[in-house]
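Quick one:
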Amino acid sequence: MKKELLKVSVIYIFIEILFFGRNFLNEYIAGDFLRFWVPNYHFILTSIKSGILPLWQPYAFLGVPGIFHPGHTFFYPLLWIFFLINFIFNLTLKFNFLGKTLELYQYLHLLIGAISMYYLLRKKLNLSIFASFFSGFIYVFSLLTITELGALQPLQGKMYLPLIIYFLIDFLQNSTFKNYFFLVLINVFLLSFGYPYYIVYFFYAELGLAVFYGVKSIFKTGIVLANAILLAGFFLLPQLHILTQAARFNEGDINPNFHTAFSPIGTHIISMLIPQGIYPDASLFWGTIPFIFLILGLFSLKKTKFNLWLVSIFLISLPLSLGGYLNIQKTLGGFPFFFDKFRTHGQIGILIFFSGTIFIAFGIEKILKGLKNNKIYLALWGFYLSILLLMLFLPFFRRNYLVDQKDFLVALGRMTIFFGAGLVICHLASLQKNKTLIIIALLLTFLEFYFYYTKIAYLKGGTTYQKYFEKNSLIPEIPNKDNLFRYMFSNNQFAYNTSYMKVFQYLGYDSTPYVGPYSLARFGNPKSFEIANVKYGIGIVLDEKKPGIKLIKTINPVEH
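Output:
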């Protein structure tokens, strides 16, 4: 098995190089990656290098936590490898080197996810090399995964889910100390990511699987999770305390519909087959041809404990991820009390995606053994023909929403071509038990994923990390110990993070905005700025593309 894993790992690495190599050499990731993680890790590394353990970062939001910030994942062991590389090879802490090593750090987690999914399917479900490899490929190269290359916490959580389930099955089948130890350890890793949505959902999933093994298994799994929480308590408790103070989780400070507004039911369903057809991001998307494998696998499952659990989390998580239009928060939002808030942005969709990816492996396995279920194929061909008829007669309809959506119709046409080709491939592969056809399906899926990957705008920052963070005329004065003051930045790169320049600011950019500035907002402007000792308000005049600098009255905050 070790030699097999090594060979599979080499192939996954080769695919990663083909998939991401060009962008890695020529592009720089924007979005949260550029605005949050790169400058904050620069601040942490600079502080440690100067002999300071950064418990506090005073330069944004009137001050925010340092290493205990949930988003910094400081207590995740693999992050220390990233730190060590920069300490050894990036002595002056150049932004380009730091950013690129952070990109490689993300690609490493894609490899972890692919190998983990492969190993889970081979060892615990006894699936073939082809089915397991295809499933691992889907899990890491699907748009649901690669759209989060610029988000460390969500991506890392996704990549560890197969490994968590692997160790859980080990423990449920044989509750030895060794299995107990590894299950506790992998859950401590999960907690170290500081991502509350996955902590809640993955714990639910683990306890859900234990349900199918009996009451004792539920109790033992609960003990494991409790011990993981206790071991992680030294960083978990401060993080939970931070989250309770965050504006995002304070209904008095934000729109109470924020957490469900970004999960429209229609968007999620359509994105399963037509990503980027309605809006730029992707949601649940396994690939068009793999979606056929998913249907074949789902309706060909044998009745086992694991399969019953897979179907359960798939069917329960699907409506929960669809968002506020179903009014589910009114039914389930009260139990547990945080359930509604932690469903923000449909993050529970990872459980649907995880189970669906395993269904794909089962579908491929059934095809290679000669699937003869004509009813499933008949239904799939019926769906395909209905799409063809829709596209054929759509131009004859009166002017309507769909007729006006040129990009959506182009995406629909692209999906229809892939779906038709996939049905032919699957049907022939079922009749001939031909592995070559499965390889062709994999290559077509690679091309489909790569096409959509090239359309993700934020993965092309357009400028180097070094140039983005260079000081310019927008900062007329640097604070010092004898002249402490804050800036109020808006509409420019300095609005996100100035910790690397040791420039204090009133707001900032953070995955978890803090209550401080929002509490001062009740005084109105410019009074809140005066209390916070804001000296400059820096913005960009959008029409003239020139910096506008405004002096705000500076007072002694002690007087207030």
